[in-house]
Amino acid sequence: MKNRMPAQPPHPADDVLDHVGYRLKRAHAALRAAMDKALREHGLTVPQYSCLEVLAARPGMSNADLARATFVTRQSMNVVMRGLLDAGLIDRPGTVETGRARPTTLTADGQRLLRAAQESVYAVETRMVRALPGRRLAALIEDLDRVAQALDE
Question: What is d(CA 79, CA 56) in angstroms, rounded to the nearest whole number?
Fold first, then answer.
């Protein structure tokens, strides 16, 4: 461990607060806080809302697939699902004929709550996107995809 050279930063930065990773985390934290605030009026958490959004687009997903799609652990998804089931927002069979995965779907109440919550969340995203100058949204989306792909390797 002695005689080790200090690690070199990946790009010029005067301060850790200027690193890309820090800036990305700061943007994520701001988005999360704004979503938490917007969803509070609907009685939802961000993971619950994300689960409803994904199920609306892809009904029938399993718990494991939902966990991957919403960036939570399978154990956390179990808690999310239990809350949504208890609130009558999702439905899933008690048993399945084959395999273990029980397909989940939105109930009519879940669809109604999702539509109301979407208005609030989409307003947050609109505020975020409007902060981008000109036509930079498409480039930002492409760049974020590239960053994710680079880190997934």
Answer: 19
- Alpha carbons within 13 A on the beta-carbon side of 123: 10
Tell me the three-class secondary structure of 88-106, residue by residue. CCEECCCCCCCCCCCCEEE
Q: How far apart (Å, rounded) are the C-alpha atoms in residues 140 and 133?
A: 11
Angle between helical axes of 46-57 and 108-130 (0-180°, round to 10): 110
Tokens 């029938």 sit at which residue?
Answer: 60
Q: Which helix (H) or strand (E) holds 90?
A: strand 90-91
What is the domain extent for residue 89? 16-152
Residues 96-121 have pLDDT tens digits of 666 666 788 999 999 999 999 999 99
54-86, pLDDT tens digit by residue?
999 999 888 899 999 999 999 999 999 999 999
- Domain containing 92 — which CATH number? 1.10.10.10
